[in-house]
């Protein structure tokens, strides 16, 4: 089902229902680019650590836009022994809904845009009809702005109207504005004296007398104008309440697609992806909050399972799957020893034809990912519990000895005692490095930048010999990987210490200048020195106080009347944590959450039994 801005609100309840009923989801995203700096090769160095790869992607990929999000929900039908799927293809774009809403800047990469265009991607649906969104901090700030604006207009939050002219000193009118003001005053006076006319349309300005209602509206072409109406006090209050309700509805509409992400997170169910590291990072960054500093905090609400990790690492699968790209994986699971699953589209939802290969449409890719998962789970049979070992592991492309980033525990730390770090002139090419190490047999080269690279030798005992060859060299330097890492850590510590010492010195000079004698520790602002409207909310993945909610199906009234669509993720966290505990306690003989069904079908139910 294609979802754009014009039909998002009318179909949102269907999305909620599909999430509520599903046993598991598959997701996929399409982006405006991958890297805004280094080439993809440099961005994915073969000897990155998981933390380094995460920081690279965070620095060089998050200014791109995730503008198409595919969600495919799967529910097992016991009666007919089949899966029923509902597919959604969302076009997403950060359209500002008002002058005070965020005006997002993003970048595009020509190769990515060209590739999507060659696949028939409709960019008009993104830029003209894309669904807006706000992250939680943006939503909070906008709601505070609206509350403050309403409070100022109505007198400390009261519904009693206060004329803008009340208790104010005369204002000097600029010469170039006097004619306009005189015309406005004349028109308002005519309106008040007229018994026939009830409304007056004016260009935007401020300051009107008591006894009228003022509202600023926009035409379809974004042209602003003012409507002034003669009203009594009762009618004025009624209109103010209607205006407030409309503003709240507009705010909820502005939160937009983020509602879907909140619903997925709150469900605590299994989320399947293919090569989903970027999908997860963009999803958190755009629709929830800025990415955390460390990877372990990245996405702990839902149960994540990456198909590329399973196909590449599980011993029962890696021997029979040679190519883990999505297109090739989908073809492979149609052949023996796999058997295609029985999957049908729900009534009212379009079906996909895998023969047409609509790859790089996010909804279709999510659908194919779900099919691959079911086929692989069916093949594993009684060994399907092995999937639990891949939960919360995100595949790392082109890393030679660390296949995944682990979101729930320590990452792998290989010795890398056969790896050298080499620095050299900018003019050097790969052939120069091969020539330099020609005496050491087979080598692998992983470029870091224009003047450095990692070189791995086939025999670790040759490392000291290679290092010694550069002692008297003028144009290049060779060091062990351990020395390289140690120096980087020392540089970080020295930089941190310099920064801390620098700030201490600045503060010491400031205190000395002011003639203050009390210690630095006492120089903090008093908690009460900030007004309520000046608070800056810290962006955090943890829910704030008072945000707990009861999970379940979302009603129409809740959809329309809720003050905040940034729902608490506490229920999802509880379910995910419980699954983690169960994972540690499980044995091959019994797996709760992945249940074997007749005819080898597998039902994923990572929430209902938890």
Automatic annotation (TrEMBL):
<dbReference type="Pfam" id="PF08675">
    <property type="entry name" value="RNA_bind"/>
</dbReference>
<dbReference type="GO" id="GO:0000289">
    <property type="term" value="P:nuclear-transcribed mRNA poly(A) tail shortening"/>
</dbReference>
<keyword id="KW-0479">Metal-binding</keyword>
<dbReference type="InterPro" id="IPR034042">
    <property type="entry name" value="PARN_R3H"/>
</dbReference>
<feature type="region of interest" description="Disordered">
    <location>
        <begin position="521"/>
        <end position="576"/>
    </location>
</feature>
<feature type="domain" description="Poly(A)-specific ribonuclease RNA-binding">
    <location>
        <begin position="409"/>
        <end position="486"/>
    </location>
</feature>
<dbReference type="InterPro" id="IPR036397">
    <property type="entry name" value="RNaseH_sf"/>
</dbReference>
<dbReference type="GO" id="GO:0005634">
    <property type="term" value="C:nucleus"/>
</dbReference>
<dbReference type="InterPro" id="IPR036867">
    <property type="entry name" value="R3H_dom_sf"/>
</dbReference>
<protein>
    <recommendedName>
        <fullName>Poly(A)-specific ribonuclease PARN</fullName>
        <ecNumber>3.1.13.4</ecNumber>
    </recommendedName>
</protein>
<keyword id="KW-0378">Hydrolase</keyword>
<dbReference type="GO" id="GO:1990432">
    <property type="term" value="P:siRNA 3'-end processing"/>
</dbReference>
<comment type="similarity">
    <text>Belongs to the CAF1 family.</text>
</comment>
<dbReference type="Pfam" id="PF04857">
    <property type="entry name" value="CAF1"/>
</dbReference>
<dbReference type="InterPro" id="IPR014789">
    <property type="entry name" value="PolyA-riboNase_RNA-binding"/>
</dbReference>
<keyword id="KW-0694">RNA-binding</keyword>
<keyword id="KW-0539">Nucleus</keyword>
<keyword id="KW-0963">Cytoplasm</keyword>
<dbReference type="GO" id="GO:0046872">
    <property type="term" value="F:metal ion binding"/>
</dbReference>
<dbReference type="GO" id="GO:1990431">
    <property type="term" value="P:priRNA 3'-end processing"/>
</dbReference>
<dbReference type="InterPro" id="IPR051181">
    <property type="entry name" value="CAF1_poly(A)_ribonucleases"/>
</dbReference>
<dbReference type="InterPro" id="IPR012677">
    <property type="entry name" value="Nucleotide-bd_a/b_plait_sf"/>
</dbReference>
<dbReference type="GO" id="GO:0004535">
    <property type="term" value="F:poly(A)-specific ribonuclease activity"/>
</dbReference>
<dbReference type="GO" id="GO:0003723">
    <property type="term" value="F:RNA binding"/>
</dbReference>
<keyword id="KW-0540">Nuclease</keyword>
<dbReference type="InterPro" id="IPR035979">
    <property type="entry name" value="RBD_domain_sf"/>
</dbReference>
<dbReference type="InterPro" id="IPR006941">
    <property type="entry name" value="RNase_CAF1"/>
</dbReference>
<dbReference type="InterPro" id="IPR012337">
    <property type="entry name" value="RNaseH-like_sf"/>
</dbReference>
<keyword id="KW-0269">Exonuclease</keyword>
<dbReference type="GO" id="GO:0005737">
    <property type="term" value="C:cytoplasm"/>
</dbReference>
């Amino acid at each position: 089902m294609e979802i754009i801005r014009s039909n998002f609100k009318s179909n949102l309840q269907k999305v909620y229902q599909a999430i509520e009923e599903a046993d598991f989801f598959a997701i996929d995203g399409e982006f405006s680019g991958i890297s805004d700096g280094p080439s993809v090769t440099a961005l994915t160095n073969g000897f990155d650590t998981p933390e380094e790869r995460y920081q690279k992607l965070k620095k060089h990929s998050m200014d791109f836009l995730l503008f198409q999000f595919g969600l495919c929900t799967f529910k097992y039908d016991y009666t007919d022994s089949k899966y029923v799927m509902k597919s959604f293809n969302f076009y997403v774009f950060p359209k500002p809904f008002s002058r005070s809403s965020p005006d997002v800047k993003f970048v595009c990469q020509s190769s990515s845009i060209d590739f999507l265009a060659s696949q028939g991607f409709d960019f008009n649906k993104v830029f003209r009809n894309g669904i807006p969104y706000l992250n939680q901090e943006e939503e909070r700030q906008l709601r505070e702005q609206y509350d403050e604006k309403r409070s100022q207009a109505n007198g400390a939050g009261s519904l009693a109207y206060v004329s803008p002219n009340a208790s104010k000193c005369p204002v000097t009118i600029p010469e170039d504005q006097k004619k306009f003001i005189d015309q406005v005053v004349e028109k308002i006076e005519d309106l008040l004296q007229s018994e026939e006319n009830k409304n007056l349309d004016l260009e935007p300005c401020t300051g009107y007398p008591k006894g009228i209602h003022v509202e600023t509206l926009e035409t379809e072409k974004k042209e602003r104008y003012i409507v002034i109406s003669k009203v009594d006090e009762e009618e004025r209050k009624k209109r103010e309440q209607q205006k407030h309700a409309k503003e709240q509805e507009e705010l909820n509409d502005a939160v937009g697609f983020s509602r879907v992400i909140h619903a997925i997170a709150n469900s605590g169910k299994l989320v399947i992806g293919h090569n989903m590291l970027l999908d997860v990072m963009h999803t958190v960054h755009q629709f929830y909050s800025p990415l955390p500093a460390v990877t372990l905090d990245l996405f702990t609400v839902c149960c994540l399972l990456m198909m590329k990790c399973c196909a590449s690492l599980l011993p029962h699968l890696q021997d029979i799957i040679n190519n883990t790209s999505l297109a090739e994986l989908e073809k492979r699971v149609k052949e023996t020893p796999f058997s295609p699953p029985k999957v049908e589209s729900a009534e009212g939802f379009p079906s996909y034809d895998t023969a047409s290969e609509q790859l790089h449409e996010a909804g279709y890719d999510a659908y194919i990912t779900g099919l691959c998962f079911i086929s692989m789970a069916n093949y594993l049979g009684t060994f399907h519990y092995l999937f639990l070992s891949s939960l919360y592991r995100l595949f790392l492309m082109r890393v030679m000895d660390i296949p995944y980033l682990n979101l729930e525990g320590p990452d792998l730390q290989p010795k890398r005692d056969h790896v050298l770090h080499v620095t050299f002139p900018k003019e050097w090419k790969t052939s120069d490095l091969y020539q330099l190490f020609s005496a050491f047999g087979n080598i692998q080269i992983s470029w870091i930048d224009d003047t450095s690279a990692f070189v791995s030798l086939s025999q670790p005992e040759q490392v000291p010999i290679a290092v010694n060859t550069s002692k008297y060299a003028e144009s290049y330097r060779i060091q062990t990987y351990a020395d390289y890492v140690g120096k980087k850590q020392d540089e970080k510590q020295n930089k941190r210490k310099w920064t801390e010492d620098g700030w201490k010195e600045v503060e010491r000079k400031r205190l000395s200048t002011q003639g203050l004698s009390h210690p630095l520790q006492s120089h903090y602002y008093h908690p009460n020195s900030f007004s309520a409207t000046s608070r800056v909310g810290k962006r955090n993945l943890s829910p704030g106080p008072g945000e707990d909610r009861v999970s379940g199906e979302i009603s129409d009234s809740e959809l329309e009347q809720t003050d905040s669509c940034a729902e608490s993720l506490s229920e999802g966290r509880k379910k995910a944590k419980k699954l983690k505990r169960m994972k540690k306690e499980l044995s091959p003989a019994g797996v709760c959450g992945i249940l074997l069904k007749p005819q080898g079908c597998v039902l994923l139910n990572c929430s209902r039994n938890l």
